[in-house]
Every structure is written in structure tokens, then in C-alpha cells.
Write a structure and sequence with these properties.
The protein has 226 residues and is mainly α. It has 13 helices and no strands.
């Protein structure tokens, strides 16, 4: 695929490029995180950069159901061109963690319906969908907390995080940490909840990385801001 042919890029051409980039070692590493593709993300991003924004192609790539193709789609689409129902349907199809994360981070957050979707997903009975609502809520905790019931969020986390399914538990834990990091008046309570629930306390953390255990995470990020 050459830059001069970008406007005429077809799904078949993109799929051939992705097949050529597939690496068994990358597939093995990705599988450990629940991702079923073998394309190095740096090379995948380079491919998307070569294609440039191409919303119609993005829609076709998404419809293939292929994980690598969907990741490219999320990088070349126009986030504001999706309707609320489009994004709701896409999220419910996005069961692969990386697709789910990129959809929320790169597309939903840039869409005019983001707040409506945050509220709807937060209360969804599907824990994977609910985790997206929590992720968007965590973003608001950090950037625009006005109107959020932060003590109420801590109440829910305290009552439900310990027994939540893994993806939802991670999202709730991130929200807990973010509240503790960003809101000094609630920091002691956030730390206390983390210490009592012990969620991710023993999570293996590589050297030079911050533990996802909320009390350690909060302390580390607060110390960096001083």
C-alpha cells in the first residue's frame, strides 16, 4: 500500500497488510492480556497513520470483526461522526480488552454523546459495558468532577468492588485511586477503602512501575505532585 493510493485503500488491502505484520510472538504476548491478534501496536499505528482519516473504510474494517482491523478502524475513524446508538452497539461488540479500551479512549471521549453514554453504561448490568461507564467516570473525576457525587461513588466502590468481575473491578479500582489522587478531602477515605478491601494488593508489579493497589498508587501520584 502506498501513500498515493490511500484514498482508494480497500478492506482487502488492509487485511493483507495486517496479515503480513502478524507475529506469533506478539500474538502470544497479547493473548496473556486477552487480546486475540499478533500485530505490534507500533506497526499497527504506523499503518493507520499511512491510511490517514478514512471514516467509511473504518466502518468496513470494524464490520470484519477482526481485532487488528478494528484497532485500525478506531485510529482512522472520525469520532464525532458516530451516533449515540452506533457507539452503544460498538461497545457491546467490543469484548476484546484493547478494542474496548481504544474505543472508549479514542472515540467515545471525543463524541458529543459521551456524557449520556457514561451515565447509561455506568448502570448497565453487563460488567464489561459497566466498566466503560466507570472508565468515563474516572476521566471526569480527574478533569471535570463538577456534578459528580464523589462520596456516593466511594460508597458504591466500597460495597461492590471486592466481588466485581475482573474488568469491572479494575475500572472501579482506577476510579478509587483517581478520587484519592485528585481530591484531598476524600483521600483518607479512599486509602482506607483500598486497605480494607485489599483489591490488587498482591498484583505483580514490574520494577519502576506503580502498583495498581490503590493506597500505593495514591501515595505515589500525590508524592509526584509535590
Amino acid at each position: 500500500m502506498t501513500p498515493t493510493a490511500v484514498s482508494d485503500t480497500t478492506v482487502a488491502e488492509v487485511m493483507r497488510e495486517l496479515a503480513a505484520l502478524d507475529d506469533p510472538r506478539a500474538r502470544e504476548v497479547n493473548a496473556k492480556h486477552g487480546d486475540d491478534h499478533g500485530v505490534n501496536l507500533g506497526k499497527l499505528r504506523a499503518l493507520a497513520k499511512q491510511i490517514k482519516t478514512h471514516h467509511d473504510l473504518a466502518l468496513e474494517l470494524w464490520d470484519t470483526g477482526d481485532t487488528a482491523a478494528r484497532l485500525v478502524a478506531l485510529l482512522i475513524c472520525r469520532p464525532r461522526s458516530f451516533g449515540r446508538d452506533d457507539l452503544d452497539g460498538m461497545l457491546r461488540q467490543a469484548r476484546i480488552p484493547k478494542v474496548h479500551d481504544w474505543l472508549v479512549s479514542y472515540v467515545v471521549k471525543k463524541n458529543p454523546s459521551v456524557e449520556d453514554l457514561r451515565v447509561e453504561w455506568f448502570a448497565d448490568s453487563d460488567p464489561v459495558v459497566a466498566s466503560a461507564g466507570w472508565a468515563l467516570t474516572t476521566d471526569r473525576v480527574a478533569k471535570s468532577p463538577e456534578g459528580l457525587d464523589l462520596p456516593g461513588l466511594l460508597d458504591v466502590i466500597e460495597a461492590e468492588m471486592k466481588d466485581a468481575p475482573e474488568r469491572l473491578q479494575w475500572a472501579m479500582n482506577h476510579c478509587l485511586a483517581q478520587i484519592g489522587i485528585e481530591h484531598a478531602e476524600l483521600r483518607a477515605r479512599a486509602v482506607a477503602i483500598g486497605e480494607r478491601l485489599e483489591v490488587l494488593k498482591d498484583y505483580p508489579t514490574p520494577p519502576n512501575c506503580t502498583s495498581p493497589f490503590a493506597p500505593i498508587w495514591i501515595a505515589e501520584m500525590v508524592s509526584r505532585s509535590h
